[in-house]
Design goal:
Blueprint (H helix, E strand, L loop, with lengths): L2 H11 L1 E2 L1 H9 L5 E4 L3 H6 E2 L4 E2 L7 H8 L5 E4 L4 H12 L5 E4 L2 H7 L5 E2 L7 H22 L6 H16 L3 H7 L20
Parallel strand pairs: 1-6, 2-4, 2-5, 5-6
Antiparallel strand pairs: 3-7
Helix pairs in contact: 7-8, 7-9
């Protein structure tokens, strides 16, 4: 199967498994991979040829004008949720050739595929979210037990927020935390692509 037919199959499916994409990269195929996580997540570990562009900074119009061409664009995040949102933004901008990397960077790592690891001192976004929700929920429960039962609304609220995030794949708290200064630090490691002849 040649390169163009492989790309065509991936586009038709709208997604690709990490192992399949890694095989294409290893075979020297031209692959453009966009990572839409935060800078600290990218710095901690990323697919070697992925280009970083955090979801909250993604200007699809500007990106497409700078990019040029109409080749497929592979999109990856941590587990798939943010990549799907990025793909939806590209579709709204009129670009239909995005391919989701199924399961994201976590699935890539779980499959034992190669990644570049850095020295990020910032906790991954998911752990930051867990810490905030855990702290708020525990505080609310303690206040409900020892101060006023009305504080039970706090852990109820955070629990409903987690349920909504799980059902919809949309976590407003994660979006908010991603905008905090330590999650927006920059590094020089975000500009590569995989065998792209531009």
């Amino acid at each position: 199967m040649n390169s163009s037919s492989v790309h065509t199959n991936a586009e038709a499916a709208g997604s690709v498994q990490p192992k399949d994409l890694q095989r294409r990269i290893a075979a020297g195929e031209s692959v453009e991979l966009l990572d839409v996580r935060t800078q600290p997540e990218y710095d901690a570990e990323h697919v070697a040829c992925a280009r970083l562009l955090p979801l909250d900074q993604l200007d699809t119009g500007a990106f497409l004008r700078q990019r040029g061409g109409d080749q497929p664009l592979y999109v990856i995040c941590q587990s798939g949720g943010r990549a799907r949102k990025a793909i939806e933004k590209f579709k709204q901008a009129g670009f239909q050739r995005c391919v989701l990397v199924e399961g994201g960077t976590q699935a890539w790592v779980d499959a034992g595929l190669p990644v570049e690891r850095g020295q990020s001192r910032v906790l991954p976004l998911i752990r930051q979210v867990q810490i905030v929700i855990g702290l708020v929920s525990a505080s609310g429960a303690a206040l409900a037990l020892w101060v006023n039962p009305a504080f039970a609304w706090i852990p109820l609220f955070t629990g409903c927020g987690l349920l909504m995030a799980g059902l919809t794949g949309n976590c407003p708290l994660a979006i908010l935390i991603a905008k905090l200064p330590w999650n927006r630090q920059t590094s020089c490691s975000s500009g590569s692509c995989c065998n792209v002849n531009s």
